[in-house]
Amino acid sequence: MSDKNEVAGVVVVVGAGLMGTGIAHAFAASGFTTRLVDSNGQALDKALHGIHAILDGGVRLGKLALEAAEAAKARLSVHTVLTEGAAGASLLVETVSENLALKKAILAEAAPLLAEGALLATNTSALSVTEIAASVPHSERLIGMHFFNPVHKMKLVELVLGIATDEATVARSRSWVEAIGKTSILVNESPGLTTSRMSAMLGNEAMWMLQEGTASAEDIDTALRMGFNHPMGPLELGDLTGWDTRLSVLRYLHSTLGEKFRPCPLIIKMVAAGRHGRKTGHGVYQYDAAGQRVAGSGLKASNL
Ligand code: NAD
């Protein structure tokens, strides 16, 4: 590639699940010829349907011209064969299931087929970018590109540096992220990066406060929404994410970053009771059959 920060050429997104759908939409809608690859044809059908729904929704809401939506659809193709999707691409975004061996195998197979000097990105949430990069010959051109769900609404992308990632790769990655209308931050490879680490800490601390009877669940959430302008309080967010997921993240951070991430006993108790949050109809709050929060249902200090 001539210009080191050039964002041009074909983009291949490997993995057409929840994240791959959003990522492929972002590139296609931003003017890039985009190939979406998945070994599962049904996942591709679902992803294509999802992308069309986002584009059609944009048209309906008057946010996107009909021609722009149709052009984005035309720029997108789907493939079950990796070698077909990867051939000659300038950027590969790997977003298959969170499995180290799988990610390494896909990158090793695709890397030789990409355009010369192509950038390789992995959307891993928690695996080591350094370890993933060891699977490709030019590990200096591999970076973590951590998107947020739902991709079409969330502006942030965490760029994650592996040990070998070079400065040119960072600069080019920033340009790609900017080209799809998102904002990048740079993070050294570390457990929980910035966002998961901060969110885990906040949710854990909110649970400690609830356990100690510092304030009611409703008031702790209101404090963060009204006092800090957070869109959601940490307890309602934990109910949405799922306390089982929260607990496994906390356990991982506790084992890697130490005592400050020790999971609050109340979280362990809630998970043991099956109160995982919205998905089980009961977390810190209770939810009715329609998924609506039951007023006044916040866990009280007296029933902890
Ligand atoms: P998902 O399960 O929805 O999708 C994964 C896709 O990978 C599936 O469609 C599957 O068929 C496909 N796949 C599996 N093996 C494959 C192969 N050999 N070749 C091609 N495709 C293959 O998962 P997801 O939630 O989209 O997550 C994908 C990645 O993004 C993971 O690394 C995850 O940690 C990361 N991530 C997830 C989120 C989130 O909120 N879900 C946020 C940021 C990052």
How would you describe this protein?
- The protein folds into two domains: 185 residues, Rossmann fold, CATH 3.40.50.720; 105 residues, N-(1-d-carboxylethyl)-l-norvaline Dehydrogenase, domain 2 (Orthogonal Bundle), CATH 1.10.1040.10.
- 45% of the residues lie in helices and 12% in strands.
- The site of nicotinamide-adenine-dinucleotide has 24 residues, from helix 1 and helix 5.
Q: Give the N-to-C terminal Cα separation.
A: 61 Å
CATH architecture annotation name of the largest domain: 3-Layer(aba) Sandwich
Say what oligomer this is.
single chain
Q: Which kinds of small molecule does this entry bind, naming each only once?
A: nicotinamide-adenine-dinucleotide
Rounded mean pLDDT is 95
For the record, what is the CATH homologous superfamily label of the largest domain?
Answer: NAD(P)-binding Rossmann-like Domain
At CATH level 3, the topology of the largest domain is: Rossmann fold
- Give the % helix: 40-55%
Number of domains: 2
Low-pLDDT stretches: none
- CATH class category of the largest domain: Alpha Beta
Backbone structural class: alpha/beta
Order of helices and strands: EHEHHEHEHEHEEHEHHHHH
Number of separate helices: 12
How many strands, which pairing sense, and closed or not: the largest β-sheet?
A: 8 strands, mixed
Strand order of the largest sheet: 3-2-1-4-5-6-7-8
The general outline is globular
Let me know the number of strands.
8
InterPro entries: 3-OHacyl-CoA_DH, 3-OHacyl-CoA_DH_NAD-bd, 3HC_DH_C, 6-PGluconate_DH-like_C_sf, 6PGD_dom2, NAD(P)-bd_dom_sf
Keywords: Oxidoreductase
Domain 3-hydroxyacyl-CoA dehydrogenase NAD binding: 11-189
Domain 3-hydroxyacyl-CoA dehydrogenase C-terminal: 194-287
